[in-house]
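INFO  loader      accepted 1 record
INFO  loader      residues=140
INFO  predictor   begin
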Amino acid sequence: MKGKAMNIGPADRVPNAATRQAMAEARAGQPLKQFTTAADCLAAAEAGEPTAANTRAYPAIVERAETGFGVCFPDFPGCVAKGDTLDLALLNAEAALAYHVEGLLEDGATLPEPSALHAAPRDPEMQEVLRTLIHLDLPR
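INFO  predictor   done
INFO  writer      dumping tokens
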């Protein structure tokens, strides 16, 4: 998988307008709908409604860096983000993941299923601060 090389920080490029628009619409306070059949869920996803079918949560590992925090994704080697504060690092991680996945999809790659939050072994050389899930709204 090629993906897009990424080390996103405050001044770096963020996802394109279509990706940002899709992310904003999915977060516009609309709760994810629950469906009784797979066909109903697929129809809603094709209609562009936010559903569990087009949303994934990938694990992210946050570490303390010399200045601020760094974030990496075990499921996407090479996809990293940074920020002066924990909040900024997590916001940048969300943008980095969306940008990286956008590149993978443009290359025709299949996305991996999210791994378990604690599946990645701990690195004794890393000052791990937090493990969390970063939600990703897949293109419709």
